[in-house]
Design goal:
The protein is mostly beta strands. Helices cover about 10% and strands about 30% of the residues. Strand 32 and strand 33 form a beta hairpin. It is elongated, with a radius of gyration of 36 Å. The two termini are about 60 Å apart.
Length: about 700
């Protein structure tokens, strides 16, 4: 998250007239007159963009900007080209920003306001308007002055002029029964320290009119935005409005600003509809009216006037549905003579181009690619069905950048039975600094059941610069299991993986099987219950990679090299109910298939052939399709699955019933250790992978063929 953004996406509302059904305009747009430089016979946009899968990329509110053909004085090239590049008209256009409510939230909301000021300074509009509720207010003069000075100090950091609107928080005095309360509450303070309660000014053939929506009762000084009788425009202000509208009668646009969206009626009564709205309509050039107070965005056009309510820039924010306007945001309004565009920007979304230097970018990438280190893990005890004995581990985080880095480390699991201490930690790293955070966790005693899930470490980081917090994408690391490391003795019953041929398998994610180019060995023991028409035994194949199949009982080993599969398909048929050892070996010269220690087939590989890589899982007992979904399931038992980055066998050998990992082992599942629904990798990676379907381990005595 950058700054005080509430939602992850930037959404825009481009406004210039209103179309009731935004998704239906594509057909109508295709019949509109073409812009300058466009062919009158051009195909509709949909025909030219066949890969655009939906219509929401098209904003139906504005007309194409007028253009002129390039002339010699404005356009220059030394190239010859038939393509016409129309130029924009040189008529004046400008941009202004509108800020919503600052108040109703915590005091820290001024940080959101400061972030909005930072954003808008990067955009440099001509001016900034507010819609009131500048301070928390509802207090006496001494507190009011402090809060207003703080607000003005932040707003005065804008590079452009800004213009205030008075809201209820800015003028209501509390306590109401205070004998020292002035008759008009904070009206005088506001006009002394901020500006007039109503005023207008002109800029680039446009007029801006500011109204005051909390006049209250002129006799008693009572103010209340929920009582219609106190939400009426006074004769004095109404006279001002008439005169202001007349002064702006020749302007391209007139814009009106106030705090309360009185056009919504309800507690505001009908004064706006009876007295104000008819004046605005009669003026003929009032384009939009802006207000705040309700702390969410809303758009209510009426009689050619666009009524727009803003959300907040630091005020109380429920964030019910950020994407539809419950967020901290501001509007940018682009004004041209004949149309106006509006876009809402979440606070903190604007990126400072000049801050993204090559060095800073490289540092951010370096940090993003630096995962947390995890030492220690979850202790396991027992045989086959492992018991969880709690865990202790240390998470290391470091800062390779030249800036401060905030971090948060969270220990989390979908399994609510874990009790981690602490469950999270956070801190700030100075440049080059490293922190280590120690965790410990407890888990109920007994074998882990099918609902067991391990603990993940989630690391969030932000680089802190002078103006911005740059969020680094979250990274996760699973706390490793720490099973018994001693290899099983011959006296211990052997575990095997049981698969039913109907959805049972084990999938090992591609990142857990990082097999480099060059020689390798893929092997296992198997005892089939039956052989289907197409059966994957160990496979990562999809017009790429490698695999062993036992379709119909016939062995088939393949490696995709030099653009094609190099396959070995010996003629013998395996019998169900018998244990066999199978090994697929690639030694960079040939692909060799071994059955029970004997080479049963060989296919020469291409010289200098590269194995085609994919990012699909390696399946035990199945074959992946193009989406990584398993199919072609194996029925029976599988044991001692091992992938090694070397050619282990160079001729006939006696296969060992129990294997052991080596320094070249990529993954090794001896099928002797299961914790809950996970099978444990006894290779150097120490991975654990989820059993699919009804796959499970059982004990059985070694059966030598």
């Amino acid at each position: 998250m950058r700054g005080w953004r509430v939602c992850g996406g930037l959404f825009a509302i481009l406004v210039s007239g209103w179309v009731n059904d935004a998704l239906a305009v594509d057909q109508a747009d295709s019949t509109a007159a073409p812009a300058a430089g466009a062919s009158a016979g051009a195909a509709p946009a949909g025909e030219l963009t066949p890969h655009l899968g939906h219509s929401r990329h098209r904003h139906p509110h504005g007309q194409h900007h007028p253009t002129v053909e390039p002339g010699e004085t404005r356009f220059f090239t030394t190239r010859s080209s038939e393509a016409l590049l129309p130029l924009p008209m040189e008529a004046d256009a400008f941009v202004f920003a509108v800020f919503g409510d600052r108040t109703g939230g915590p005091p820290e909301g001024v940080d959101v306001l400061a972030d909005a000021v930072r954003d808008v300074n990067l955009l440099e509009p001509d001016l900034v308007m507010t819609v009131g509720d500048l301070i928390n207010g509802y207090n006496r003069t001494d507190e009011w002055l402090v809060q207003m000075a703080e607000f003005k100090a932040i707003m005065n950091q804008l590079l452009c002029p800004w213009f205030p609107v008075a809201g209820n928080h800015d003028v209501y005095w509390r306590p109401l029964n205070d004998p020292a309360r002035p008759k008009n509450q904070h009206d005088d303070n506001y006009e002394m320290h901020v500006g007039p309660l109503w005023y207008s000014f002109q800029h680039k053939q446009c007029q801006f009119i500011v109204l005051y929506s909390d006049e209250g009762n002129a006799t008693t000084g009572e103010k209340d935005f929920s009582r219609p009788e106190l939400q009426r425009i006074s004769p004095e202000q109404l006279a001002f409005l008439r005169e202001a509208l007349n002064r702006g009668r020749d302007c391209h646009h007139q814009f009106v600003f106030l705090h309360h969206p009185r056009w919504l009626a309800g507690g505001y009564g009908d004064d706006w509809g009876k007295q104000v709205h008819p004046l605005l309509v009669a003026a003929g050039n009032v384009t939009a009216v802006f207000a705040g107070h309700i702390h969410h965005m809303r758009y209510d056009p009426a009689d050619g006037i666009e009524y727009v309510a803003l959300a907040t820039v630091g005020g109380g924010q429920a964030a019910v549905v950020p994407e539809v306007g419950y967020l901290h945001q501001y509007h940018l309004v682009t004004v041209r003579k004949d149309q106006v565009a509006m876009a809402a920007f979440p606070v903190g979304e604007v990126i400072d181009v000049r801050e993204i230097t090559g060095d800073f970018q490289a540092e951010a990438v370096r940090l993003a690619r630096l995962p947390p280190t995890v030492q220690g893990g979850i202790r396991l005890t027992g045989r086959l069905r492992q018991q969880v004995a709690g865990g202790q581990w240390t998470v290391g985080v470091e800062n390779p950048t030249s800036h401060l880095v905030d971090y948060t480390v969270v220990a989390e699991s979908p399994d609510s039975r874990w009790r981690a201490e602490p469950d999270h930690a956070h801190g700030t790293l100075k440049p080059g600094q490293r922190h280590e955070i120690r965790f410990q966790a407890a888990y109920p005693s007994g074998p882990a059941d099918e609902s067991f899930d391990p603990i993940r470490i989630v690391l969030s980081r932000e680089i802190l610069t002078k103006t911005t917090r740059y969020a680094i994408p979250e990274v996760t690391a699973t706390v490793p299991f720490m099973p018994t490391t001693e290899p099983p003795s011959a006296a211990q019953p052997n575990g095997v993986l049981v698969l039913d041929g109907d959805g049972d398998c084990v999938g090992i994610a591609a990142e857990k099987v990082p097999l480099p180019q060059g020689p390798f060995t893929l092997e296992c023991w198997l005892r089939a219950k039956q052989f289907g028409k197409r059966v994957g035994l160990l496979a990562k194949t999809e017009s790429s990679e490698y695999g062993i199949f036992v379709s119909g009982g016939r062995l088939d080993g393949s490696v995709h090299l030099g653009g094609a599969y190099r396959s070995v398909q010996p003629p013998m048929i395996l019998e169900p109910g018998q244990w066999h050892h199978v090994a697929l070996v690639y030694d960079e010269t040939a692909v060799v298939l071994y059955l029970d220690g004997q080479p049963v087939g060989r296919t020469e590989g291409p010289s200098r052939g590269q194995r085609k890589i994919n990012w699909l899982p390696l399946f035990i007992g199945a074959d992946p399709d193009g989406a990584g979904t398993p199919n072609s399931f194996f029925a029976g038992e599988i044991d001692e699955v091992c992938l090694t980055r070397s050619a282990k066998y160079q001729g006939a050998f006696t296969p060992k019933r129990r294997l052991n990992p080596t320094d070249d082992t990529v993954v090794f599942f001896d099928c002797d250790q299961q914790v809950g629904p996970f099978l444990i990798d006894r290779g150097p990676g120490g991975h654990h992978v989820r059993l699919r379907g009804d796959a499970h381990l059982i004990e059985c005595e070694p059966i030598i063929p």
